[in-house]
């Protein structure tokens, strides 16, 4: 059997740069006049390649907005964003759609699997649509990493919630994107299934060299990351390296304290 280390090439995916995504002075405002809301306020951030980054902060602090802007799902009001070496701010819709398809993977809270397709067909669907042939060795490794071998012929309804989310993780990994964004990927799972999925996300970073960015409210989930960015009122106010659930919880409590004082 091929080991992960043998297949994983640190130059891939995405070239030699140590940074998978960059934001410079990114501001995002919704509405205008009296109803104007500044969701992001001159945010600078570098997302390191091959690392697991969590984004946390109180409700309304701008987590989803930051993720959507970094992923090219939303436009910025000002500032610049790069995925790898490609600046995405200013790309035309068609170019942006292609870049998202080729370089970015997504995992959402709802698993978004097609019920009529089995697990394997769901995993390869984005590549089938793009007319790309999956790299079989990589696909085998992904299926192995997320623990789905033996369940590939199952339809989503024949799988538990945790298994369905693992299919969604495998689907995001299959095309070997430069970066994967997860929006509360364990938000719909009980703690045991959530822990399983987080373990597989962690393994995909450690063993497959994937770059992962996850928005979460859950300090336990953030404890699986290498680095946590804390947002408040559209600004990155703090960050933590090698977080634990306890240290993240403690930091989040200070936001609560600030809000109620
Ligand atoms: N489409 C929109 N139109 C107007 N305001 C918006 C829109 N999307 C977000 N906002 C506002 O921008 C701010 C940041 O929202 P965002 O969803 O990014 O926060 P969040 O930290 O992800 O929140 P939550 O944890 O509750 O999901 C909030 O004040 C929100 O009301």
Characterization of the model:
The protein has helices at residues 4-7, 63-70, 93-103, 119-130, 136-145, 161-174, 191-206, 219-222, 245-260; strands at residues 19-30, 37-48, 52-56, 78-83, 86-87, 104-107, 179-183, 212-215, 227-232, 235-241. The protein is an alpha/beta fold and 261 residues long. The chain has one domain: Rossmann fold (3-Layer(aba) Sandwich). Strands 6-7-8-3-9-10 form a six-stranded mixed beta sheet, with helices on both faces. Helix 4 packs parallel to helix 6 and helix 5 (136-145) runs antiparallel to helix 6 (161-174). Mean pLDDT is 88; it is low at 1-16. It binds adenosine-5'-triphosphate. The site of adenosine-5'-triphosphate has 12 residues, from strand 2 and helix 2. Residues 30-31, 37, 39, 57, 59-65 line the site of adenosine-5'-triphosphate (ATP). GO terms for molecular function: ATP binding; ATP hydrolysis activity; transmembrane transporter activity. This is ABC transporter ATP-binding protein. Residues 21-258 form the ABC transporter domain. Keywords: ATP-binding, Nucleotide-binding, Transport.
Helix content: 25-40%
What general outline do the C-alpha atoms trace? globular
> What is the CA–CA distance across the termini?
58 Å
Work out the count of structural domains. Answer: 1
Annotated CATH homologous superfamily: P-loop containing nucleotide triphosphate hydrolases
Number of strands: 10
Query: DSSP helix count?
Result: 9
Strand order of the largest sheet: 6-7-8-3-9-10
Rg value: 18 Å
Strand portion:
15-25%
Chain-averaged pLDDT: 88
């Amino acid at each position: 059997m091929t080991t992960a280390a043998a297949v994983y090439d640190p130059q891939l995916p995405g070239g030699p740069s140590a940074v998978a995504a960059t934001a410079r002075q990114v501001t995002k405002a919704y509405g205008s006049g009296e109803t104007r809301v500044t969701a992001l306020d001159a945010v600078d951030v570098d997302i390191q390649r091959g690392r697991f980054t969590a984004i946390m902060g109180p409700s309304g602090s701008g987590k989803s907005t930051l993720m959507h802007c970094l992923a090219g799902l939303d436009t910025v009001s000002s500032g610049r964003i790069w995925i790898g070496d490609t600046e995405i701010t200013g790309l035309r819709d068609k170019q942006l759609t292609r870049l998202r398809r080729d370089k970015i993977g997504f995992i959402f809270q709802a698993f978004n699997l097609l019920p009529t397709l089995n697990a394997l067909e769901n995993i390869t669907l984005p590549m089938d649509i793009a007319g790309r042939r999956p790299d079989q060795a990589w696909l085998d490794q992904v299926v192995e990493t997320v623990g789905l071998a033996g369940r590939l012929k199952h339809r989503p309804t024949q799988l538990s919630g945790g298994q369905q989310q693992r299919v969604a993780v495998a689907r995001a990994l299959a095309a070997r994107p430069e970066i994967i964004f997860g929006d509360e990927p364990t938000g719909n799972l009980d703690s045991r299934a959530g822990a399983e999925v987080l373990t597989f996300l962690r393994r995909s970073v450690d063993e497959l060299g994937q770059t992962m960015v996850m928005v979460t409210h859950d300090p336990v989930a953030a404890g699986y990351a290498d680095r946590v960015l804390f947002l408040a009122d559209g600004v990155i106010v703090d960050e933590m390296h090698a977080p634990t659930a306890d240290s993240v919880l403690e930091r989040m409590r200070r936001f609560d304290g600030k809000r109620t004082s």
